[in-house]
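Reviewer comment 2.1 asked that we show a complete input and output for one of the modelled complexes. We chose the nicotinamide-adenine-dinucleotide case, as it is the one discussed in the main text.
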Amino acid sequence: MQELTHFIGGKHVNGSSGRFGEVFTPMTGEVGAKVPLASPAEIRAAVENAKAAQPGWAATNPQRRARVFMKFVDLLNRDMNSLAELLAREHGKTIPDAKGDIQRGLEVAEFAIGIPHLIKGEYSDSAGTGIDIYSMRQPLGVVAGITPFNFPAMIPLWKCAPAIACGNAFILKPSERDPGVPLRLAELWIEAGLPPGIFNVINGDKQAVDALIDDPDVAAIGFVGSTPIAEYIYARSAAHGKRVQCFGGAKNHMVIMPDADMKQAVDALIGAGYGSAGERCMAISVAVPVGKATAEALMEQLVPRVENLKIGPSTDASADYGPLVTRDALERVRNYVDIGIKEGATLAVDGRGFKMQGYENGFYMGGCLFDNVTKDMRIYKEEIFGPVLSVLRAEKYDEALRLCNEHEYGNGVAIFTRDGDTARDFASKVQVGMVGVNVPIPVPLSYYTFGGWKRSSFGDLNQHGPDSIHFYTKTKTVTSRWPSGVKEGASFVMPLM
Ligand code: NAD
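Response of the prediction step:
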């Protein structure tokens, strides 16, 4: 069986802890590779290596740094097919969906090509008599990213591209469930001309994460994953006085107003609810039809669409979605369906019994649809992260808005309506970080920022866009006066301009 490595100092390095994790091929259910789980000593060695490499990279002027990114983007495009195949094999999503995962990461590397402009400071000429003030953005040093299984290309790229462009050295601790693509990204960075030691991959679990957080030479931690772990990593990193941003779980609502184009709304809902087997932090997991007639029309169109979802192996480009990532994930999602039934929700479509012919050991699950869900149910309150959509009926718009605002998560939300006033009111009042108006998955483009509110995000500043440049740099402000501006005599009062 293939034994994966770490990637430190520009080369593959075998694990030495003696501990390994299993990397599955979800479409067949087989174990495809084993991944080393780093010990604290291995983390220390990687950090020291990165620390030694970082000053040289920080001293490389931003224009030259940008050229490495141009090459890197070319290489991602060159290898798009093979990266997507590897990603789909380890994760389970279909190959077209895997290409989207890579593309949305690549776009942040494209954004980072603008680093000479993005990292510019400010300058105030003659802020006082003979006094000029300017600010500069300097890298933090060695920074670390800890990423989830569900976007093994996109989220590592969201983290590392701005961090590296700003002149930092970066240590990625990817999900131990699909580490293959991150290791390939490391090879491509070297091929693009990034100096060894600036992008490193350390595979591992909690031990590796804790060692990164506790390492005094790691200046900042960026995390994406589930909310309990986000909260833990935020608190532990903050206790060390580190810069930290942690993005967590979600329960994204889609409000369907009586005036919505129902065909469009159903198309949007089926893709956003079941695409990637529901394993997206921006997946729609709750549909909120407003009014009885809207709910009836929605269910009438939605039920046959869910029943006819095409589930297939990751290699089937015509499939709507593939298997879940692991058997544990499959069991967990099935268990939530059992919970929903016990709680009294109506299971309008039951996909638990689905078997994929020829792939009987794969981690497949048919689409499930719950109707008459209420807000006290666990299937509404908790993130399921699978192909399970809940319909919670609201009588009025105000009730639908209140539901979105009272939910503990606030990652994404959507409203489908043809009424401009309602859409505007919703966008203004909803307590959620990313809002779609007739757009079911409103993931902002790379030059805007991505981030949720409430318990979907801990710390300030979002991912990519201008916030990422702020997160991965510290600002220094210089106030200077030259002799021609100096008045004679000492002053003991607070300096005023
Ligand atoms: P996860 O929280 O299980 O794991 C995320 C990372 O944390 C992995 O690298 C993992 O190795 C590490 N980790 C796991 N347990 C740990 C522990 N006890 N201590 C320290 N580190 C630990 O998440 P996942 O299952 O890989 O990913 C799915 C979750 O990520 C979902 O909740 C999803 O909503 C969320 N997500 C959020 C966003 C966002 O931007 N808000 C984006 C993608 C995914």
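The chain has a mean pLDDT of 97. We note this here for comparison with the apo prediction described in Section 3.2.
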